[in-house]
Specification:
It contains 4 helices and no strands. The radius of gyration is 18 Å and the shape is elongated. It is mostly helical and 132 residues long. The chain has one domain. The N terminus is likely disordered.
Length: 132
């Protein structure tokens, strides 16, 4: 496997997925060594419990917001508290992903880092797939 075997099924749950920069797309074609794979696995494994916990909070707040939206007893204060909690969970998840991405990036050789930077520049230039 040229991507280091890091296709993770939890991308839609706030984890590291094929399409994310810490997933297979980030590592594809880098010819990782076994030692690099082990370190990358450790980084991902270490951050997964915190990501999972934030994902639980995010899902719970979405459920509560949906219930509130379809309620005859709408409460602005409760809505604000739920959206604040949801925003905090999303913020924490973004910080966790960024930290993990940086830790993984630092595992790479300078040549591999250059490939990743070049790939990121091309991705930014191309823009989101749905907006060409």
């Amino acid at each position: 496997m040229r991507d280091g075997g890091f296709r993770h099924v939890h991308a839609r749950h706030g984890g590291f997925g094929e399409g994310g920069m810490t997933g297979g797309a980030f590592l594809r074609g880098l010819d990782l060594t076994e030692a690099q794979r082990d370190k990358i696995f450790a980084v991902r494994h270490a951050s997964e419990p915190a990501m999972r916990e934030q994902g639980k909070i995010l899902r719970a707040t979405r459920v509560e917001l949906s219930k509130l939206a379809l309620s005859n007893d709408y409460d602005e204060t409760k809505a604000r508290a739920l959206t604040d909690r949801s925003a905090q969970a999303m913020s924490t998840m973004a910080q966790l992903r960024t930290r993990a991405m940086n830790e993984i990036f630092r595992v790479l050789t300078p040549e591999q880092q250059a490939k990743v930077i070049e790939r990121q520049a091309r991705w930014e230039q191309r823009g989101p797939r749905g907006f060409r």
